[in-house]
Structure formats: structure tokens, C-alpha cells
Amino acid sequence: MTAPFEERYMDVLQNLESAIVRTYDKHPALTDRQVRDVIDALIRGYEVEARGRSLPAPRFSAMTQELYAHVQTMCDWRLGKEELVDDSSQPVETGINPVTIPEIIACLKRIRLSIKMHKSAGARGYLNFVSQFIA
After folding, report:
1. Taking the complete model, does pTM exceed 0.85, yes or no?
2. Residue 20, H or E segment
3. Phi, psi of 109 (to 5 degrees)
4. Domains contained in the chain, number
């Protein structure tokens, strides 16, 4: 029996959501809509990349651009494209196995679904919800 999606990709989802929460902690004015816009842009970008092409970077406000950069860096790290470094710029050995572009897209779509599910809780329903679980 196959584990549910959230179980199979819990570590990836937590990594991506930690990038979101880290930005929200720094910018409490961030809204679910801005997070959704960033997630949508990343999904489009990775879908195009999977076809061997590239898109120009989307244009966002400074706060939203920062969110985009944080989540994209985490996605690229999970894809094996980026290396994590410590405070002294030394590579950190994590022992994670890279995921594929279709898997990153599926994780981003799962986050987008979570944002939609928390829509009734207000402009920051998702952000307030996920902040409870990400330290």
C-alpha cells in the first residue's frame, strides 16, 4: 500500500513551508494571496523547465520577491541544484535524496491546495495555520 502524499513528501513540504513561514515572520503583512501568487509562478516556471525551456523571473513587490527567492531556493535545493551552506559559507552535508521536477510541482500544488482550504479563515488563514507547525 502506498503512503499518502503528505507522508511521502512530508520533509519536502516542511522545507518549502519553512521558507514561507520564515518570510512571513519577517514580513507579517504578507497575505495568503501573495503566497499563492508565488506558488503559482513557481509551478509555471518548473512546468516550463520540465519542457526544457525557461521563463523570465516574475516581477513582484520587494516582500513578495523575497518570498519567491526563498521558496525557489528551497525547491532548487530539494531538486539537487543548490547546496546548503552554513554561516561561514561552508557546504552542509544533509544526506537528502533529490526529488524530481514533477515531484516539486506536486508539492507546490499541495501547498496551493492548502492555501485554498484555509481561504475562509481570512487573508492570512493559511499563513497563521502553517506557522503553528513550522518552528
Report:
1. yes
2. helix 10-26
3. -65, -35
4. 1
